[in-house]
């Protein structure tokens, strides 16, 4: 993320990186205010819009893609491409990577997204074990022994972290 959550990857309802002049173009073409345009880019874009407004939930997109919905497949493919592009850019900036970690909702639960992202990263020597990749709910290295990069799936407990951080702030304020 940058100044706002619009920067970066396309998410459930957020557009991700776009040319800044898109805002002016949309406002002029559709007679929208800047606030309305930014609301659209924050709440009605991303994989939701790419899927033809089917869903922002990757489980729904996967089901749609399996049933032949090309827009759902496009939304998933675009997301995987963008993740791989970011990993590649950071790998270049860091002169390589040792470990690639998938976590949180999509990263820890969607084996087909992990497989697609890792397929893009094959040029870096990323190789995953297809059977290990299908496992869920456990911290697990899913890369093959001959992979140049270790690939891990790490489950999260975001609610617990929020509760612990909140408790720490409340206790510090006493």
How would you describe what is shown here?
The protein has 174 residues and is mainly α. It folds into two domains: 1-95, ATPase, nucleotide binding domain (Nucleotidyltransferase, domain 5, 2-Layer Sandwich), CATH 3.30.420; 97-174, Nucleotidyltransferase, domain 5. Helices cover 54% and strands 7% of the residues. The protein is built from nine helices and three strands; from the N terminus they run αααααβαααββα. The protein has helices at residues 21-30, 34-43, 46-50, 58-66, 70-93, 104-109, 111-120, 130-133, 158-173; strands at residues 99-103, 140-141, 150-154. A hairpin with an 8-residue loop joins β2 and β3. The longest helix has 24 residues, at 70-93.
Following the backbone from N to C, one meets helices and strands in this order, namely HHHHHEHHHEEH
Which sequence of strands runs across the widest sheet?
1-3-2
Question: Biggest sheet: strands, sense, closure?
Answer: 3 strands, mixed
Shape assignment: globular
Assign the CATH topology of the largest domain. Nucleotidyltransferase, domain 5
Q: SS-based structural class?
A: mainly alpha
* CATH domain class name of the largest domain: Alpha Beta
Q: Gyration radius, to the nearest Å?
A: 19 Å
CATH-level-4 superfamily name of the largest domain: ATPase, nucleotide binding domain
For the termini, the CA-CA separation is: 32 Å
Number of strands: 3
Strand content: 5-15%
> Which CATH architecture of the largest domain?
2-Layer Sandwich
Please work out how many helical segments DSSP would assign: 9
The residue fraction in helices comes out at: 40-55%
On the 0 to 100 scale, the average pLDDT is 94
Count of all domains? 2
Q: Poorly predicted ranges (pLDDT <50, ≥5 residues)?
A: none
């Amino acid at each position: 993320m940058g100044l706002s959550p619009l920067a970066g990857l396309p998410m459930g309802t957020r557009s991700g990186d776009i040319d800044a002049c898109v805002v002016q173009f949309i406002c002029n073409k559709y007679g929208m205010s800047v606030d309305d345009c930014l609301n659209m880019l924050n709440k009605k874009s991303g994989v939701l819009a790419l899927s033809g407004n089917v869903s922002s939930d990757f489980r729904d997109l996967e089901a749609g893609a399996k049933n032949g919905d090309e827009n759902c497949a496009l939304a998933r493919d675009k997301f995987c491409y963008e993740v791989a592009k970011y990993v590649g850019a950071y790998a270049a900036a860091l002169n390589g990577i040792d470990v690639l970690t998938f976590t949180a909702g999509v990263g820890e639960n969607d084996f087909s997204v992990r497989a697609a992202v890792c397929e893009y990263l094959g040029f870096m020597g990323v190789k995953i074990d297809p059977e290990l990749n299908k496992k869920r709910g456990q911290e697990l290295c899913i890369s093959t022994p001959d992979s140049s990069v270790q690939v891990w799936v790490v489950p999260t407990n975001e609610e617990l972290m929020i509760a612990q951080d909140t408790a720490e702030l409340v206790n510090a304020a006493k």
